[in-house]
Design brief:
globular, 13 strands, five-stranded antiparallel sheet, DUF4863 family protein, six-stranded antiparallel sheet, about 180 residues, alpha+beta, Jelly Rolls
């Protein structure tokens, strides 16, 4: 569990920096420019969340089978500026996948909403694996869904770990998914 504490400690300076920003397209661009996959922060967080999945303390609770798992790593605290830390593992090799408009295999997760938005570090485990954000498909990097946004998490191209930070720990699964 030393790596879990290391991930939390690595997150705190980042959360201090972003605590007063509003998630959305502008912040997503900033995150990818400032803390993209070549940055030390991205490299450290990606390494630690991969270790967490391997050690079994991150994304260890099945949501809908072994290819769709998540876990809350830390509830909101004063130390994290009231952000929670959660990890999700999704793998589009799942037998429940479907084909998207580009003929890629896609795994769709649970429809949910972000009352206060979300900051989401995308860590592909397979070359070309991507997570669908509100601005489109994202490989290694960040998504930042707006406050009030709702969507299905979707992955294609293999397995992805999403390490996400929720302001006030808020996420809601109480919304009716759109038809179709």
């Amino acid at each position: 569990m030393q790596s879990r504490e290391e991930l939390i400690q690595c997150s705190i300076p980042f959360l201090r920096e972003v605590k007063d920003m509003t998630p959305g397209a502008e912040m997503e661009r900033w995150l990818n420019e400032t803390y993209g996959e070549e940055s030390a922060l991205y490299q450290d967080l990606a390494r630690l969340i991969k270790v967490g999945v391997e050690e079994g303390w991150a994304a260890n609770q099945e949501v809908d089978g072994p290819n769709y798992r998540r876990s809350r790593i830390l509830e909101p605290t004063a130390d994290t500026f009231q952000f929670s830390i959660t990890a999700v593992y999704m793998n589009s090799a799942d037998p429940r996948r479907f084909k998207d408009e580009d003929d890629h295999d896609v795994l769709r997760g649970q429809y949910h909403g972000h009352p206060y938005g979300e900051l989401n570090l995308v860590v592909p485990l397979n070359k070309g694996a991507e997570l669908k954000g509100l601005q489109g498909w994202q490989g290694a990097g960040w998504t930042a869904p707006d406050p009030g946004s709702r969507h299905y998490p979707e992955v294609r191209g293999g397995a992805v770990i999403a390490l996400f930070y929720l302001p006030a720990g808020r996420i809601s699964y109480d919304f009716k998914a759109p038809a179709g």
